[in-house]
Amino acid sequence: MEAKIVTLPGDGISPEVVAEAVKVLRRVAEVYSHTFEFEEALIGGAAIDATGEALPAETLKLCQESDGVLLGAVGDPKYDDPRSPVRPEQGLLALRKGLGVFANLRPVKLYKQLLHASTIKPEVIADVDLLVVRELTGGIYFGERARKSVDGVQAAYDTMFYTVPEIERIVRVAFDLARKRRKKVTSVDKANVLESSRLWRETATRVAEEYPDVEFDCMYVDIAAMRLVHYPNVFDVIVTGNMFGDILTDEASMIAGSIGMLPSGAVGAHKPSLFEPIHGSAPKYTGQNVVNPIATILSAAMLLRYSLELEDEAQAIEDAVQTVLAEGYRTKDIREEGTILIGTREMGDLVAERINNG
Ligand code: IPM
Ligand code: MG
């Protein structure tokens, strides 16, 4: 197969982890005789520095014409000033919107070698295998917002806004995926307070009737947050809005031992799709060869699976990660006594070396 993959190295530690994922993809291409062509483009703080824009038109165009997009992370403390007119995160949101990737799949799987790396008790998380389906191009991230003066004081608002078609399509994605898993969907909202959540719940409940073979329940987001660390096995597929999904997946990453372990893939009605680790740009670790590239490497595996339909190759990457962990190699974030501490590049090398065909 021939495929054109756009890589977006982004900010902070992100170029380092993207480089390791590319290394692994090149190895897959070699072992399975594919031709992957890589093209790099600017996004986030790096793009603002070079062009003044967080998502240059050229980047979006390159991505739209590709077979799959692999992103690291964006975010630079230089632009954290709340009065900054342009911020790196705007580039990411514009890219998601521009590609129309409304469904963000965030699998939370615990590699058994990391059972004790988590701060949560092993018996609580031992069998966790869940998937968060986060709505990605709507909700409070994209609703109307402004600052204004009210009775002489400064005020600001953001709007959580969802249409029925937006809710229907994301809930259907969740049910279709649940059919290939343990056949259970939990819709997470705050319907005891928010009108947009009441519409979400009403719509999700109606869509659920199309899937009588899939178990369905609804849960308030505060309770879901508690259950995730109390009894995460109750979940198979969680479907939720943009902001709740953002928060719950950082929490859920602690089940997997580290935020450095969780990949994600954003898909829409059309290709290409967008793949990125759920973690941020971790600026304070930049250039030290210490961060964990596995989340990005596993995101590259998701790219092979969802964009290129190369299931065996995706599995080969996941197996290679498992092998390297079983051999005892660990980056700093997942280090435990009795394991071998290695850096970002060494982790990429080892995973790449362990890729084999069948
Ligand atoms: C994520 C990140 C982004 C988000 C930020 C960087 C805008 O936290 O992908 O989870 O909130 O979606
Ligand atoms: Mg997040």
Helix content: 25-40%
Multimerization state: single chain
Structural class: alpha/beta
Measured distance between first and last alpha carbons: 18 Å
The neighbouring-strand order within the major sheet is 2-1-3-12-11-4-5-10-8-9
Number of helices: 12
Q: How many β-strand runs?
A: 14
Structural shape: globular
Low-confidence stretches: none
Ligand inventory reads: 3-isopropylmalic acid, magnesium ion
Series of secondary-structure elements, N-terminal to C-terminal = EHEHHEHEHEEEHEHEHEHEEHHEEH
Radius of gyration based on Cα positions: 20 Å
**Major sheet summary line:** 10 strands, mixed
* Proportion of residues in β-strands: 15-25%
Q: Taking all residues together, what is the mean pLDDT?
A: 97
Q: Could you characterize what this model shows?
A:
It is built from twelve helices and 14 strands. By secondary structure, the protein is α/β, with parallel strands linked by helices. The chain is globular. Helices cover 40% and strands 20% of the residues. Strand 1, helix 1 and strand 2 (35-40) form a beta-alpha-beta unit. The chain has helices at residues 14-32, 44-51, 57-64, 88-99, 122-125, 164-179, 195-208, 221-230, 242-253, 294-306, 311-326, 344-353; strands spanning 2-10, 35-40, 68-73, 103-109, 129-135, 145-150, 153-158, 184-189, 215-220, 237-240, 265-267, 274-275, 329-330, 340-341. Strands 2-1-3-12-11-4-5-10-8-9 form a ten-stranded mixed β-sheet, sandwiched between helices. It has a two-stranded antiparallel ribbon with strand order 6-7. The model has no long low-confidence stretch (mean pLDDT 97). Bound molecules: 3-isopropylmalic acid (IPM) and magnesium ion. Residues 74-75, 89, 92, 246, 278, 280 line the site of 3-isopropylmalic acid (IPM).
